Amino acid sequence: MKINWEGVMPAVTTKFTAEGQLDLVMFEKNIKAQIDAGVNGIILGGTLGEASTLTKEEKEVLINTTLRIAEGKIPVIVNIAEQTTSEAVTLAKRAEELGVNGLMLLPPMRYKATDHETVVYFKEIAKSTSLPIMIYNNPVDYKIEVTLDMFEELLKLENIQAVKESTRDISNVVRIRNRFGNRLKVLCGVDTLALESLVTGADGWVAGLVVAYPAETVAIYKLVKAGRVNEAVDIYRWFMPLLELDISPQLVQNIKLAEVATGLGTENVRAPRLPLQGTERERVLSIIDLAMKNRPVLPEYKTI
């Protein structure tokens, strides 16, 4: 399946039972809700998916389950965030064997690689697979920035095709477009900058709160791309307090509480993460409760 690298692509959470096992029943319910809302792809194994706590076997179960649910209707993309190049290459090859449609690559984990090391790392993975690739550029959280000059080198490989742009510099969308045209697709990776990024030329949105509010997220994307920006802004203003839950070290716990509110998940996380407690839990719940009471009526966005 060809990936166009556009539209809304949820970085989905991993569902767990109270006993800490994979909750595939709730996971399937959520994936189906994303597809029904009109998302353009599913991304597995990101930070929000608690990938660092998953075993190799669990990752394969999630991949196979998602491919079965998607039925080839939308692409399934796997995130690679490994500690060594060889581990990353092994996972990329295995993902392709399982039938995954694309990859998202983080820079080397637990080591602040130089620009040269980072480029070589990405290129070694890309050369090991025929799958199309999106580079995750998030220097705020991962301390490594993929600069435009680095992308100039990376784009010599045809299967490196997109960037999840999370530098927090909204003007970077324009810089990328000016430098590379449509050769490098741009997807916003920061929920609180999504509308602004789309207006300035981003092709898509790798979203977090979409796992709890898929329809609202897709509606914003569709309205912006249809030129109905004012309507999109109205929804976005309602959404902003929720979207801010994504830019927190506890984003997983925050977003899973939002999934509980919409019936699309549970708050079970895997240690060392623990469910929110005390005043912070009360604060997050108050944001979610207020949003649920004022949830907007959406236009018929699917027909736009």
From TrEMBL:
Q: What are its E.C. numbers?
A: 4.1.3.3, 4.2.1.41, 4.3.3.7
* Alphabetized GO MF terms: 4-hydroxy-tetrahydrodipicolinate synthase activity; 5-dehydro-4-deoxyglucarate dehydratase activity; N-acetylneuraminate lyase activity
Keyword flag Lyase = yes
- Which domain of life does this protein belong to? Bacteria
InterPro entries, per the entry: Aldolase_TIM, DapA-like
Q: Which Pfam families match?
A: DHDPS
CDD domains xrefs:
DHDPS-like (cd00408)
Which Gene3D superfamilies does the protein's record reference?
Answer: Aldolase class I (3.20.20.70)
Give the signal sequence positions. none
Coiled coil regions, renumbered to chain? none
Q: Which UniProt keywords apply?
A: Lyase
Q: Does the keyword Cell membrane apply?
A: no
Q: Say which family it is in.
A: Belongs to the DapA family.
PANTHER family registered for this protein in UniProt:
N-ACETYLNEURAMINATE LYASE
The molecule here is called: Dihydrodipicolinate synthase family protein
Q: What organism does the record attribute this protein to?
A: Flavobacterium soyae
